[in-house]
Amino acid sequence: MTTTSRIEWTEQTWNPIVGCTKVSAGCKHCYAEVMAKRLRAMGTPGYEKGFALRLIPERLNDPVRRKKPTVYFVNSMSDLFHERVPVDYIDKVFEVITQTPHHHYQILTKRAERMASYFTSRPVPKNVWLGVSVENKRHGVPRIDFLRKVPAKIRFLSVEPLLEDVGPLDLKGIHWVIVGGESGAKARPMKPEWADAVRIQCQKQKVAFFFKQWGGWGADGKKRAKSKNGRLLNGRTWDQMPAGVQI
Known about the structure:
CATH topology: TIM Barrel
CATH architecture: Alpha-Beta Barrel
Number of helices: 6
CATH class: Alpha Beta
Radius of gyration: 17 Å
Strand content: 15-25%
């Protein structure tokens, strides 16, 4: 099953795997876990066990059936490189990706070390964008070095939820950086200076910068009933994409 995405930087989501487990601070209030519980309550196929990790092979060929060139976010409800996803199943996902060069696939992981290890013996398809989550210094920043080892055409960082000032970032070999605050009832606030510090570093190192959202807290430091609170940073939107890419 693929669905039109409400995520600002992609077009469709493709979930041949659902469910995950927490590995770092960014996972604490996981949006996918909350959504999985709702989908289970609604009786949505694939979520009979809520957020328990589950492979759904019947969804593997969904992109093959779509002829219109599409940007897919792979496993928005899981992590392709989760330690319990068998290597041969990951291979099957990439077989589909290779068979559909008219699509682009965005793959984001918090298991950067496993991702880097996987690609030591396999080529990266040209239509794949690989990214890592960078929510803080302790868990997020070290993932960048693992990402840099992988020869993907586009490498990106999801600095979301941004939980602190992540400090100096070496963006060599990185093509795109997304920044956003945390959403949901228990969202942790993001300070404007944290987001702007990342933007300035992107500008200096000539990396495309995309500001996704404020999340549950506004730029004024006040919590709102509704998440997102707009997309303005320093009075403007930032929708930069990697060179030659448009969504």
